[in-house]
Amino acid sequence: MKTHLILTAAAAALALSGCGDKKETPAETTTVAGSETAPAPAASPSQMLASSPIAANLAASPDHKSLAAAVTQAGLAETLSSAGPFTLFAPTDAAFVQVPPVTRDGWMRPAQKDVLAGVLKYHVVPGKLSAADLAAKIAEGSGKAVLKTADGQDLTATKSGDAILLTSASGNKATVMLADVGQSNGVVHVIDAVLVPKM
Fold this sequence. Notes:
Blueprint: H1 2-17, E1 30-31, H2 54-60, H3 65-73, E2 86-91, H4 93-97, H5 101-107, H6 113-121, E3 124-126, H7 131-140, E4 144-148, E5 154-160, E6 163-167, E7 173-183, E8 186-191
Parallel strand pairs: 2-8
Antiparallel strand pairs: 1-7, 2-3, 4-5, 5-6, 6-7, 7-8
Helix pairs in contact: 2-3, 3-6
């Protein structure tokens, strides 16, 4: 009888814990690279809430642990929590793995804080640019759009089929895998490589 009461109380507690009246809606997303038959990208937009700022969403995303750690190490969490708006091209953890370990580890050293901040700011464009905005700029620019990043360097956007392709000032490329992940202070576009600015 005692066990039955404990189990009933536990079941009631679980049922009540799911009855909170505050609901967060996941951010809207648009898949850009690939077709309907392609496997889903590695990003987890369901962890990002449109009611939260970029820095908080990066910290909550299971696929952006490296980026979240880098943002904290570079001292940019406060900036990416401010009103913005910002457009962030967010490399996944898999993208960071592609960076040679000696380079990646070097960026995370306290003495390299400014270098790391420069790399991260290169992924940020002031203002909110949706995938449709980027596509329109590319069309207006006869096939390419030059975006001015937060670190003052140019980042080139072009189309590759239906996907948006980004080319850094140093020549490496990244593809937008998932676009239009809404944030309270802008928008995130998930990319498959870390963009490297001119150093």
